[in-house]
C-alpha cells in the first residue's frame, strides 16, 4: 500500500513538473514575438566615383531616400527583401555646389528619365545579395555584401555604369569637367565604376 502511495506521489510530482515547463516555454515564446521596420530617417547613402588615370576618389552622398516598405517582418531578410526604394538625384551632395550642379545637369541630365534611382534589395543568409537599380531606362543588379549588427544594416557594392548604358553620361560629365579630371599625365578621365556604401537602422516594434 505504501509503495502504491509513493508511486502515485512521484507520478503526481512529475506531472506538475512537466506542466510547469510547458507553461514557461509557452510564455517565453509569447514574449519573444516582435517585428521590425526600417527607420528611413537613419539612412545614409554614400558613393565614391573616380577621376584621372591615377583614379582619384570623389566622394558624395544622396540626402533623400523614399522607402516603400512591404510589411513589418520578424527577421531582417524578410523585411529588407520586401522593401523598394526611390532616391531623387536632385538630392546629390558632394559639399561642392559647382560639382553638384554639373552632376545633375551633365551626368544624370544626359540619361533617359532619370529623376530618381529606383529599385530594391535582395539579401541572402551568407551576407551577400544584389541591389537592383533602375537608371537611364535600364534595370540591372549590383552584387553586394552586407553586415547586420545591433540592428544596423550596412551594405557595400560596386556599380559598373556601362551596365546601365552610362557611356554617354560618363562622356558628358568628363567633357564638362575636362580640366578638373586631368591627372599629372595630362589625360582627362572619368571612370565607369562607382562604389556604393549605404546603411539603415532596423527598429524593433
UniProtKB/TrEMBL annotation:
Where the record annotates domain Lipid/polyisoprenoid-binding YceI-like, the positions are 35-203
Q: Gene3D superfamilies, per this entry?
A: Lipid/polyisoprenoid-binding, YceI-like (2.40.128.110)
> Known SMART domains for this protein?
YceI
Q: What name has this protein been given in UniProt? A: YceI family protein
Top-level taxon in the UniProt lineage: Bacteria
